[in-house]
Amino acid sequence: MTTSLSFDEILWPAATAVPADRVSTGSPETSTLVLHSENGTEAGLWRVTPGEFSTIHRGYTEIIVIHDGDGELVHDDGSALPLRPGAIIVLEDGWSGRWVIRQTVTKSYTIVPQSDGRPARHG
């Protein structure tokens, strides 16, 4: 099956709040549109509104392409990766840090499981 979408045609699922125990600033909300899921690998689109929150990648690697917005991913060691249109980022299994979102970010993503074939949730 082939899927073809244009960003202006996307019907985003309802946004959900990032869990309060992960949020350090603002009230960020996310929306995820899964485009393909098979054998634990998942590809889709994800959108997040401004705010700051923590994340830990366990059991999977995530490949990200930023399409809109502005922010950064700040690793626990303090290094930062800019989140701007055109940025391509690979977050390896075990990455932990925080999302700092200044302007709503839209990304495409692919999650590749590391072991048991079940992807963990991203973002």
Question: How would you describe what is shown here?
Answer:
- InterPro entries: RmlC-like_jellyroll, RmlC_Cupin_sf, UGlyAH_Cupin_dom.
- It comes from Microbacterium panaciterrae.
- This is (S)-ureidoglycine aminohydrolase cupin domain-containing protein.
- Pfam families: Cupin_3 (PF05899).
- Residues 41-109 form the (S)-ureidoglycine aminohydrolase cupin domain.
- It contains no helices and 9 strands.
- Strands 1, 2, 3, 4, 5, 6, 7, 8 and 9 form a 9-stranded antiparallel beta sheet that branches.
- It has strands at residues 16-17, 23-26, 29-38, 41-48, 51-56, 60-75, 80-83, 88-91, 96-113.
- It has one domain (15-113): Jelly Rolls.
- The model has no long low-confidence stretch (mean pLDDT 91).
- The protein is 0% helix and 59% strand.
- With 123 residues, the protein is an all-beta fold.
- 20% of the residues are buried.
- Strand 3 (29-38) and strand 4 (41-48) form a beta hairpin.
- It starts with 15 loop residues before the first strand and ends in a 10-residue tail after the last strand.
